[in-house]
Amino acid sequence: MRVPRDFLEKAKAVACHRNSDRWDLLYRILWRLAGDEKHLLELHGDPQVLKLNDYARTVAREVHKMKALVRFRAVKAGVAEGADDPRYVAWFEPDHDIVGYASGFFRRRFAGMRWSILTPRACAHYEGEGEVWFTGGVGREAGPEADEFEEAWRLYYGSIFNPARLKVRAMLAEMPRRYWKNLPEARLIPSLVEDANRRLAGMRALTKSSDEMQCGPRPAAPETSASARLTALQQGSLEHLALQAAGCRRCPLWEPATQTVWGEGPPDAPIMLIGEQPGDQEDLLGRPFAGPAGRLLDRALAQAGLDRRRLYLTNAVKHFKFKSRGKRRLHEKPLDIEVLACLPWLQAEMARVKPLLVVCLGATAARALLGRAVKITEERGRLLNLPVVDDAGSVRPTLLLTFHPSYLLRLQEAPAAADAYEKFVADLQLAKQVGAEGDE
Ligand code: SF4
Asked: Would you say 322 and 331 are in contact if contact means Cβ atoms under 8 Å apart?
């Protein structure tokens, strides 16, 4: 029997719909497709096709909500024997039986982590490798309690809330009330909405008074400033931050990308290398510097006498930005606004690792940290002082700018290639000297 691929895709979704007539509907449509109505799915006015599309859309919406609204909490108790790292557990109450259907997404997004998603009708579990496995549903009491990081995240959500952009109807469409009880940040919504007009009036008054004054003393930073957000982020472990970043929606780059590519390396690394953004292979593998540029970097590191395993490698932007050209995905430079949106994650990594030296590979990372345009050819190879990263001033690494390995790859045929590569290795040797202090 042959049926259109579209039917198979829709049937997978419709099979998750909780209405008991779904099997009857699928069987009737299958019967007609297998008979002499091969183009049945093109008859959009047909009552059965209408219902099929409606059920498939409902399930797709529910899956979208699950991807956006599942909140993991670190749970120490109940870990498998011998495992020290926590399991990340989420409680979710979907309207349809989508746990199996959506589990592939979570497996890709949270590859390398041990997690469970518990729901009343089915539970999905993953051990950081292998296949997702399933058990029957459980009650709410089996779900995780708030962890120690929850308060920090509430502070964070409160601080990114912009009253000037509040659209209650759009917000309710994206985050319907029935999900609120399981979202840590949702408890804040009523008071934030109530407070919005007052905060908006305050913002207008502030703008007016600074217009009138032209200049003068800066108003005191509000409680929910970027520094408060950063403090909130700093309280989690790198692993916990990675988990939170995996669900980040602060800019549109998350959507077409496969996953957030978080940094990797020892949490006490004396040297942190920061690139621009993950490339095609990094996006698929979920690791920074895993593609051709990474291989060139590895070669240069070895020549400079640096051990990659002792370095913390990350990117200024955590999602791959690309444009599709046929089957290929071509790198696109991130916009300043995207780099800025991702900066709190980078600052949080720096605040956690506290490197002695930060090496910016390329202009995007340099611009993110220095807040100004940088010409790498002019400024590379010199040690600079980086403005403080955290409020306490405890993170104040030295900064070194150098080429991005992708730039060197692009140069490969050019006469300047050998010279640029030599300079790159020399910069890494300088990094080794500075970092050696932290390694002692
Ligand atoms: S690029 Fe950064 S800010 Fe944008 S969605 Fe990804 S993690 Fe969030």
From this structure: yes
Is the minimum distance from the CB of 248 to ligand 1 under 6 angstroms? Answer: yes
- What six digits make up the tokens of 78? 């109940």
Whether 296 contacts 420, CB under 8 Å = no
What domains are defined for the chain? Answer: 5-61 (no CATH), 71-142 (no CATH), 150-215 (no CATH), 244-439 (3.40.470.10)
HSE-CB at 190 with a 13 A cutoff on CA atoms is: 4
pLDDT (tens digit, 9 = 90+) per residue, 126-164? 998 889 999 999 998 888 877 666 666 666 666 666 655
User: If you measure from the C-alpha of residue 364 to the centroid of ligand 1, how many angstroms do you get, rounded to a whole number?
Assistant: 15
Q: 346: which residues sit within 8 A by CB, 6+ positions away? A: 274, 314, 316, 368, 369
Q: Which helix (H) or strand (E) holds 330?
A: strand 328-331
Q: What is the pLDDT of residues 248-271, one digit of tens each?
A: 888 889 888 988 999 999 999 999
Q: What are the residues whose beta carbons fall under 8 Å from the beta carbon of 88, sequence distance 6 or more?
A: 72, 73, 74, 75, 110, 113, 114, 115, 116, 243
Cα 286 to ligand 1 centroid, rounded to whole Å: 14
Ligand 1 mean position to 317 CA, how many Å? 6
**260 within ligand 1 shell (Cβ under 6 A):** yes
59 — pLDDT class (breaks 50, 70, 90): very high
Q: Among 260, 262, 336, 343, which residue has the most ligand 1 atoms within 8 Å of its CB, making it the best to mutate?
A: 260
Nearest to 434 by CA among 267, 298, 315, 273: 273
183 phi/psi in degrees, rounded to 5: -110, 120
254 CB near ligand 1 (under 6 Å)? yes
Residue 276's pLDDT is: 96
Query: 388-412, pLDDT tens digit by residue?
Result: 555 445 567 899 999 999 999 988 7
3-state SS class at 90: strand
